[in-house]
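Obj.: predict assembly geometry.
Materials: sequence records (below).
Method: joint structure prediction, all chains together.
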Amino acid sequence: MYSNGSRAIVKRIVSQFKRDKRSLALMLLAPMLLLFLVWLVFNGSDYKPLIGYDNLPNPIIESISDNSEELLKLDREEAISLMKSEELDAYISMENEQPAILLEGSDSNKNSTVMQVVEEALQSMDNNQKGTEPKVEFLYGSSDLGLFDRVGPVLIGFFVFFFVFILGGISFLRERTQGTLVKLLSTPIKRWQLVVGYVVGFGTFTILQSILIVLFSVYILDMHMVGYVWELLIVTILLAITALTLAILLSTFANNEFQIMQFIPIVIIPQVFFSGIFNLDTLDKWIQILSNFMPLTYGADALSDMMIKGYHLQDVWFNIVVLCGFALVFFLLNIVVLKKHRTL
Amino acid sequence: MSIIQIDNVSHQFGKEKVLKDVDLKIEKGKIYGLLGPSGAGKTTLINMIVGMLRPTKGTIIVDNTKVPSFKVLHKIGFMAQSDALYQELTAWENMEFIGSIYQVKKKILQKKMKEAARAVNLENHLKKPISQFSGGMKRRLSLAISLLHEPRILLLDEPTVGIDPLLRKSIWDEFRKLQQNGVTIVVTTHVMDEADKCDQLALLRDGRIVASGTPLELKKQYQVETIEDVFLKDGGVL
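Observations (raw structure tokens):
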């Protein structure tokens, strides 16, 4: 039955929604945005590998060439250096009448695409040479490297980012709504001291969080890991600080906890799609450009390189510099935005 | 000698003019009451003396320094209209937190915290988290917190809301004690018997000061018996 009481509540909810246009817009538009993102990611064309070769019979070259983005004649050293800069997926050559494949290896999807292409090419060879199984080597990882090993590092970065963002955002929001921010700013505290306090205070717990996540992934879940744990921690902590400073900044634009949650589909989820879980190579250029503005891209990329390829901090210095840059910019913006509450 | 001097101050939020050409001199060591209906601009004026807001026009000088200024923030004890307390922390932890932001030395702070808690009758509740405090207790704790760094000027926005008459009296006794020590106190209030206790009053309406003086002077000016009647007459009711 539709009682008067219920009717009153319905009316109230409608009025509240009308006042909170942002929530309404989110409810109506966010699902479409997210569907669009999923559509983008899954609608990319098939990936065509970049392959190098040396000393291969012509029919094989032709077959591979049809199924690859690029096919270059290289020697082994050139091939390895291209792989290191992520410009080559595989290198195929003949060793003692046996085809030898060197896979870059860090992406299991690319590995299997390459293997398909090569196997198809080998089919086209003379019958007498059939049966010679190709020898497969990996520059990084091994044939054991599964999907989880590849997305694992991205997920570590994501979860660190996500939880710090939510907790930091709500915590700072409460500071505002419960009036303690005004009280704090009526003391002689400098605005930057306030933000530093937040970063260091939360930082302590994010260190703990990072240690647990990393150790759990590596030792309990047995995620592929050839780097150093402490180096991973540096990156996750940096990522956490970036998330925290961004959360504090965005909490200024939220009036309640619910509105903090609204940032999840807008700020967090797109980063997941575009930060390395899915291969962006086959997607439009603008998405790749967009992903350059996402902190998680750099964190996740550095974590992957360290865990799968055994890179060190100095090898991922660029990602670290960019992350520091993000954190610094958010930090400074926070100090400026706090002027809204105290002009001094 | 006036410790707070407000010269021709106006303030607007967007298009809304909250204060219009306010002039005010507050003498050192006085208890100064800001009276007026809700929305008259009392809180805005207090916030501007603290230095949270910058006047759109005019200047405010506190203790010979133009605000906003960090130097002035050190000398001011501020209590906002809403209780700014951390719900998860105990009363003691809340006090300790703000006290240490003022960089009060640890030993002195401990002593000050006990004194302040006693002054507002909370010394037996310091270990409780704020979530277990009643409205009046929170108000009193907020007041205690604003005293920790021995401010020379107290700016209190409706300090006695939700506090029963008995406790209100003891809080006013505390104000008197502070006053004897040379502290200047500015309070906004709706409680008329409180207004009567102030040394000086200013009546605000629609962002303007419409009358000021001692309670006696105001009553004379409006030709009424009580401050409540001043208020009512000014509002056009009487």
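Conclusions so far: The two ends of chain B are 36 Å apart (CA to CA).
To do: check interface contacts against the pulldown list.
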